[in-house]
Amino acid sequence: MYLRRRFILALSLVTVLMFGYYGVTLGFALSDPSNGVSTQARFAEWGRQHGLGFVVTFFENVNYNINKPKVGGAPPTGSFGSGPVLNHIPASGHLPAPKNIVPPATSFMAGEGVWHALGRRTSTGIPTMYDAFVRPDSQHTSFIAGLVWMDPTVLRAQLYSGNQIPGGGPFKDSAPISASASRTLAAVFNAGFRMPDAGGGYYTDHRVVFPLRAGAASAVVLNNGVLEVGTWGRDFTMNSSIASVRQNLKLIVDKSHAVPGLSANDNGAWGKVVGNSDYIWRSGMGETKNGAIVYVAGPSLSIVSLADLMVRAGVVRGMEMDINTDWVQFSSFASPNGQVVAGAQGTKLLSSMLGLPARYFASWWVRDFFTMSVQK
Q1: What is residue 273's DSSP assignment?
Q2: Is 85 within 8 Å of 116 (Cβ atoms)?
Q3: CB distance 118 to 350 below 8 Å
Q4: Type and span of the H or E element at 287
Q5: Order of strands across the sheet with 330-332?
Q6: Distances (CA, A) of 22 to 8, 15, 59, 95
Q7: Which secondary structure element, helix H or strand E, spans residue 186, and what is its range?
Q8: Looking at residue 369, what DSSP letter applies?
Q9: Hey, how many other C-beta atoms are within 10 angstroms of the C-beta on 178?
Q10: At what angle do helices 39-49 and 2-30 cross, to 10 degrees?
């Protein structure tokens, strides 16, 4: 009887401590903006950090099946962007402007797939970026995906590293973006998955933070600020010209085609969240034949439709980046060169993007991201 009482007392104490620990850590997670904008995202981040990923995935699947993206319909008026098109641009000193995109939807809507000059220009008036908007496929026609084409001959890329992703800091370049760096900032956008889910490694500041994996899709920033996308071990090997490497899964576009075997029903390879294979917020980044960088993002994207949009935009090698509403974020800046900017001056690629550009200017932002800055 005595031993039984001691056992019950010990079990009760363990239970109280366990629930107290989980309660306290959950409270901190729900109040931490680095865990996402929404309460759902903050709870999910906490759950995965505490071994409850299977519970989080179950409830996300239930929620997705209740709120599947609408099929059919039309996007709101004015969804295909605005601003200057290819007029009055200097003839030299830049890559040729991109060709308009043939939309994947079976019908055509006015303005769909048309590129518009975006963000800061060079001192000679050359646009550094263009954006275009299309419906993501022939089924989800009420949704819009955004694409940005970036010219590496007039822009310089930089990978910023976080204390959470990849972890292992401090790093030379971390949030917040400094006032000095903001004077030439043209764009800032999300990187990839958490490192345990990325299927690859991370290199920056002359050190390997996580071992680089042969065959992994890799975003490589060179010392001269050029950003390239390809397969590690085939397109790139380590050398003194490389400043940073961010790996994430495998290529989804190679040799100007979607890689063989991509399937919207693949429930393992392209992200553990929300059933892996469903039509959700996704982002990707690729390189064109002449070296331009294309960023693609939107809601209601499968891995197949993401790859298809990259191919339509001229990408020869492309990779998936981060997924889900809280983490997919691209912002541009249009203030005159030399003027200090902050998050308030940023414009989201899609108004439906949940995260604000202010995150990249805050010390609490602990994930990695890329910037593009005007260099001419």
Answers
A1: G
A2: yes
A3: no
A4: strand 280-288
A5: 155-160, 369-374, 185-190, 330-332, 347-348
A6: 21, 11, 19, 54
A7: strand 185-190
A8: E
A9: 12
A10: 130
Q: Which of 127, 86, 147, 144 is nearest to 285 (CA)?
A: 147
Tell which wins on pLDDT, 9 or 284.
Answer: 284
> How many C-alpha atoms does 51 have within 13 Å on its Cβ side?
1
CA distance 372 to 333: 10
Q: Which residues on neighbouring strands pair with residue 242, listed in sequence order?
A: 222
Q: 246 CB contacts (<8 Å, ≥6 apart)? A: 159, 191, 192, 202, 218, 219, 368
pLDDT single digits (tens) 73-132:
888 888 998 877 765 667 778 999 999 999 999 888 999 999 999 999 999 999 999 999
Task: Give CA–CA dist 229/213, Å, rounded.
Answer: 15
pLDDT tens for 63-72 read: 555 567 788 7
CB atoms within 10 A of CB 16: 10
**Number of neighbouring beta carbons within 10 Å of residue 280:** 22
- Residues in the chain, overall count: 376
Q: What's the CA gap between 55 and 233, in Å, rounded? A: 37
Residue 334 contacts residue 1 (beta carbons within 8 Å): no
CB 372 within 8 A of CB 156: yes
